[in-house]
Amino acid sequence: MPRPILATVHTQALRHNLSRARAAAPDARVWAVVKANAYGHGIARTFESLRGADGFALLDLDEAKALRDLGWRGPILLLEGVFEQRDLELCSRLDLWHTVHCEQQIDMLSQHKTNVPQRVFLKMNSGMNRLGFAPHSYRSAWTRLNALPQVDEISLMAHFSDADGGKGIAQQMKVFQQYTQDLPGERSLSNSAAILRHGGGAEVRADWVRAGIALYGSAPDFGQHDAVDWGLQPAMSLSTKIIGTQDLVAGDSVGYGSCFMAEGAMRIGVAACGYADGYPRLCPTGTPILVNGVRTRTLGRVSMDMLGVDLTPLQRAGVSAGFGSEVTLWGRARNGAVLSIDEVAHSAGTIGYELMCALAARVPVSAD
Ligand SMILES: *Cc1c(COP(=O)(O)O)cnc(C)c1O
Questions:
Q1: Are residues 331 and 246 part of one domain?
Q2: How many A from CA of 296 to the centre of ligand 1?
Q3: What is the mean pLDDT of the chain?
Q4: CA torsion 271→274→278→279, rounded to 10°?
Q5: What is the pLDDT of residues 54-68, one digit of tens each?
Q6: Confidence of residue 1 (pLDDT cuts 50, 70, 90)
Q7: What is the CATH number of the domain that holds 339?
Q8: Is the whole-model pTM more than 0.90?
Q9: Percent of the chain whose predicted confidence (pLDDT) is above 70
Q10: Known catalytic residue: 138?
Q11: How far apart are CA 317 and CA 193, in angstroms?
Q12: Which atom of ligand 1 is least distant from the CA of 39?
């Protein structure tokens, strides 16, 4: 029998979350961002649920090919554009739209042999200083692109660094608008945080929004809002079972480094999940976890294949919590209780994105 660990992708939740993103940006077209194998959920597994989007955005050419192989004929956008000259041939073959964020990509386009001009998204660096043309060189990049026979329509794009936080988007909006005012073309600016928090402004929603994390049911601004606040449902549950129990007395410790020490008699369970499954080792004692759908806490250091859980609240509730009990690391338990991935991520000092993307290859995944 395989280890009892299992990740479940909830296709209905993906559909629901996509409709939430649409509702928050009613007049915009929605890119479903499926980079990083759909944030760890699997491109093929999520495709049917997300095909109601207007297009798919991703980075990896193999993932673009996978979408075409699944039968998607609508728009696909390469968010980082091409990496080398021959990628443009694949863009032509698969009809991919691509981001242009630097002069080298324009050079490559100018060398590209094609009879079918390509749709490009010209990216401005409006303050994040990751990818894109500086505002003052944006217009000349646009002019250069516009003169190329290889280029069809040019859309305008930027990305917010602080849509989820206190700094907000005002400054970057101002820069973008100032330097694009009289340029034609569709606009795409907003990620999930901008859609949910700032989507009230039509200029923020623009023509296309790029919804990523919201589709997967995680709050982009956890700490200020959780997934329930935003009406999002978890798209992934990670579950396992208790494969051992121990009865401790005062002074007994749990796991490597003896990081947790019992103050009195207590019963603990050992769950079949560890950092080699993608559960963060940085989750300290006290990280929330569900056993039989009842909220309890982890104990001691997370090992490679196992972690300790406190069974005290389960005994009190009179629930059988011994060998074989259901453990929910994040997501939905069988009794309907939900533990948000954001809460677990927060315990590890990170964000839900990282946990879903880090689900290990050894974990079997099913869809419901
Ligand atoms: C990943 C990404 C997004 C989606 O961001 P979320 O925070 O997951 O909604 C949008 N735009 C770009 C350019 C991205 O790289």
A1: yes
A2: 33
A3: 96
A4: 60
A5: 999 999 999 999 999
A6: low
A7: 2.40.37.10
A8: yes
A9: 98
A10: no
A11: 39
A12: 8
